């Protein structure tokens, strides 16, 4: 299960977007990394499209090959390809755990899923890319419910708004998926049309 393990703050600075959430290094130095980071970069159409695709990839923690597969699936679905792509990315289990407020970052959410702390419909799932469906019920395993990350999640519950397409039960931290998200319910700062334009050239 491939994933990016390098310094994420460098990527945040390169793509001008806080990919972590509350990244102090990005806030202090909002210019690209490296000794030539402050030089003026000529903004070209291809560069803008490529950077938007990279922002999406690193935001959701997806490798290039998998991201391309998501795009191809989104293109075959009815409706707008860009909106379909974001719906696919948002429905990943690691993102759902993050959106529900059970993890501070998507990276932490990925780790919690990989360690097998969650069940979907009563079945243990340890694959971060697992895609939830409408009416799915995601629960924390009994062996994990009293572990520190979930104790902290209960104490800080409500600090971050939960999207309307899901519901979280405060006591048990059970996640109920009412529907898959539509574009209007996704607040990730991405211009998905640029990604569609980039891939449509190939």
Overview of this protein structure:
This protein has 202 residues and is of the alpha+beta class. Helix content is 42%, strand content 9%. It is built from 9 helices and 5 strands, in the order αααααααβββαββα. It has helices at residues 8-15, 24-28, 45-60, 64-76, 81-90, 93-99, 106-114, 148-155, 192-200; strands at 118-120, 123-125, 137-140, 166-169, 174-177. A 5-stranded antiparallel sheet has the order 2-1-3-5-4, with helices on one face. A hairpin with a 4-residue loop joins strand 4 and strand 5. Helix 6 packs across helix 7 (106-114). It is globular and about 50 Å long. The mean pLDDT is 87.
Question: What's the SSE blueprint?
Answer:
Elements: H1 8-15, H2 24-28, H3 45-60, H4 64-76, H5 81-90, H6 93-99, H7 106-114, E1 118-120, E2 123-125, E3 137-140, H8 148-155, E4 166-169, E5 174-177, H9 192-200
Antiparallel strand pairs: 1-2, 1-3, 3-5, 4-5
Helix pairs in contact: 1-3, 3-9, 4-5, 5-9, 6-7
Strand content: 5-15%
Average pLDDT metric: 87
Principal-axis shape equals: globular
Number of helices: 9
Helix content: 40-55%
* Count of individual beta strands: 5
Low-confidence stretches: none
Strand order of the largest sheet: 2-1-3-5-4
Helix and strand content put the structural class at: alpha+beta
Separation, N- and C-terminal Cα atoms: 26 Å
Radius of gyration: 18 Å
